Amino acid sequence: MPKKKAREPKLIRPDDIDPHHNWSRPLQAPGHTQVDFEERVNFRRLHEYRIARVRAALARSGLGALLCFDQHNIRYTTSTVIGEWARDKLTRYSLLAGSGEPYIWDFGSAARHHKLHAPWLCADHCRAGLLGMRGAVGSDITLFKEAAREIKSLLDAEGVGDMPLGLDVVEPPMLFELQKLGIKVRDGQQVMLEAREVKNIDELTLLNMAAAMVDGVYQDIAEALKPGVKESEIVALATARLYQMGSDCVEGINSISGERCSPHPHNFTDRLIRPGDQAFFDVIQSFVGYRTCYYRTFNVGRATDAQRSAYHKAREWMDRAIELLKPGMSSERVAHALPKAEDIGFASEMDAFGLNFCHGLGLGLHERPLVSRLTSFREPIELKAGMVFAVETYCPATDGISAARIEEEVILTPEGAKIISLYPAEELPIANPY
Predict the structure, then answer these.
(1) What CATH number is given for 201-431 in this structure?
(2) For 360-397, how does the pLDDT look when each residue is reduced to its tens digit (9 = 90+)?
(3) Of 37, 129, 177, 365, which shows the fewest CB atoms inside 10 Å?
(4) Mean pLDDT per 10-residue run, the chain (434 residues)?
(5) HEC per residue, the chain
């Protein structure tokens, strides 16, 4: 395949709204297959939107190029993925220089596959690559030296060899070899997260489809929540159901019940569910890369006044935060509306972090912007249409062991927040009531 000519960068301002959005219509949650009689997800439009966002962010950054080892950044820039196993290996990497076309380095067989099946990439930009695999290759740094020289030659060829290089995450030997060649390395993660913070209609549709899968899983969980069931059995049930529905990665499921609810341990065990337990769950999975972060709390058979009160407070805090999520709003103001650490029995906002906050959601579980009382007062961000948030609240009960945990996924439309996590959570759900 002949090499594509470098295109002029399509500049997109951070507050631009994808023209394919039709906010007057409900967001689609179509079937997983493509059909000829409806437009569903347009993957080539998705790729063009994402690469345009990266080019625009790069043009504003003062950097000459972006070298990415973060799997979400690689997928966003190249529309390639070779499985969740690659997430922590730091052996795949991509390069985007100026207005040029993206490069991708992969295991040799995967690079050959991209040449055959990813025609949106230049064939000679799909290359075999191997670095340290987090030290597994050994202490010989030859591979790092060769890779750094290759990258330097490409930067020079693209005319950005004298400009700083943005880098997201990396093995230290790779960083050192780039610096030895005179390359000025800067933080590229913020540039990529700026690009990823506003979603187009295809991303919103994929996020909505992923949320719809979790809607169904919570129906299964509600029916299965009976005394004698293990927390781990709920995890197994949910994982199997998600893969049956088309999930490409069940990243993790929190399953927490009874006396384990307070303080929140963020994991699961083989504990047996008991009558009257308060139990909450978080389903973290992805469909075509786009993730969910979706908590729900149930009571098993019956609930006490203390458990109902905790749930009511968590819901009140949730609704107060969602009401403020609208374009033009400052993340600082949203953070002020979140409960303080002492409201849930913690001494500091650091101690309480992750229990009452909002985080961006997309290819990554935690994207920009992140809204919390710990971070947002120092660096407020203006909210924009097309952002997607997971809004989390947590309230311990006065009985000292129970707690309520709720999370809604919301899309910011021009009029405000639209909830896409639809399993009912306005009132405390009682599973299999007595």
Answers:
(1) 3.90.230.10
(2) 999 999 999 999 999 999 999 999 999 999 999 999 99
(3) 37
(4) 46 52 84 91 96 96 97 98 87 93 95 96 96 90 97 96 97 97 97 96 96 98 98 98 97 97 97 98 98 98 98 98 96 97 97 97 95 95 96 98 98 95 98 95
(5) CCCCCCCCCCCCCCCCCCCCCCCCCCCCCCCCCCCCCCCCCCHHHHHHHHHHHHHHHHHHHCCCEEEECCHHHHHHHHCCCCCHHHHHCCCCEEEEECCCCCEEEECHHHHHHHHHHCCCCCHHHEEECCCCCCCCCCCCCHHHHHHHHHHHHHHHHCCCCCCCEEECCCCHHHHHHHHHCCCCEEECHHHHHHHHCCCCHHHHHHHHHHHHHHHHHHHHHHHHCCCCCEHHHHHHHHHHHHHHHCCCEEEEEEEEEHHHHCCCCCCECCCECCCCCEEEEEEEEEECCEECCEEEEEEECCCCHHHHHHHHHHHHHHHHHHHHCCCCCEHHHHHHHCCCHHHHCCCCHHHHCCCCEEEECCCCCCEEEEECCCCCCCCCCECCCCCEEEEEEEEECCCCCCEEEEEEEEEEECCEEEECCCCCCCCCCEECCC
Per the CATH hierarchy, to which homologous superfamily does domain 43-196 belong?
Creatinase/prolidase N-terminal domain (3.40.350.10)
